[in-house]
User: What shape does this take?
Amino acid sequence: MAVIDELPPELLAHLLSFLPGRELGKMCRVSRRFQKSIKIDSVWQMKCTQEYGVQFSKGARTESYFYNIYTKVLIRYGHMLGIWQLERGPYGGLVNIKFIDGKLLAVECFPPVDPHVTHPLRLEELFSIGLTENYTVEIQCLGGFCGPHPGKIKQEGDDETITFKCANHEKHRHPLGLQQDLARWIAQERNYSMESVLLHEEELHALKFEALQKSRCRYKLKGLCMPEFKPGALIQPGIFKGHYGSHGVELMMLTYDDEKSEALVTKITGDPNVPANKVSIRADLHRPIILNQEQQRSINLMEDIDFPEPSPDVAVHNLPEQPFTIPDDCIERYKYPPKTCRARFHGTGQIAGHGFVDPALSPVHWIVFDEHTFGTLWMELRCFSMYSRVHENLT
Assistant: This one.
């Protein structure tokens, strides 16, 4: 110990930096020299990056800045970095928590305005966790209409569920009243005025707005994992944006079973008919479909085709490219679909009445266009939905 204790502080700090950050604090009790070496802030900057993957912009920092970030913010809240699913009745939600400018920032990721599935996500800051100038932890709600204000974080179980609560509900009241708040929300959600809302959509808007109002001051989040890369998959798993009729654009997670025999499209955000967390589409990858352009002229024509059983020797990635067109008797929700597709498969889509009443599986064609785009042809519903990959970095 005497030899190590006599090393210069910078060299001793370098050796100690190989220890996990949680163990470094214990080393302070070994000797005063250890305590002095551990206080070197570059060690803690390294720990922040190594253990939590956070990066810092260049610039001057006050003494012990990184030590306080690590010991007061990251140790306690660092597990929150990543993507979370928001529990909000049937609607759900997607929240991304990143480390930006010295604090954890939670941002809700909304789908783009219908029908623009290829557009970027709409982002809204929810809350932040950082330090004051005196290095005390500061949790702030960033919603509402009156600037940042205090909030609280409650962690449950094995850090898989967290709840954020705003400490001042009054900050979330629109200064011009609830009706103006509804008009503002409709303009953001659908990109048109409240007067333009169709009668059959009015109830849907009212229900969703009410759910959003109730959750504005309290967010319950459950951990959401991005699926792993699947070698040989026609289209890699991930998060997608897709059309759902009068419900607008919703967020989905594309995954595969272990044998890659079935593709699953699960709702991250949902609606009163088919809520969040339900599987929306199942595609049987052992049942490919090959159609020429004439056979796609109508859904009635496709329903009359006697599809042959596929050869077991044909792998999905070896299927031939084929033409694609939206049938004439189909409702089109995407104006300029691709002219060809990589593959098409038999599948089923989840449908249900309001409140997920009388759920049933309806036949669909699941169509892969390219690495970032797929579509669903709902045979009974006579409509086509397009899905586009979320390209924003949410990890």
Q: What stands out?
A: The two ends are 42 Å apart (CA to CA). The first helix runs from residue 2 to 5. The mean pLDDT is 85.
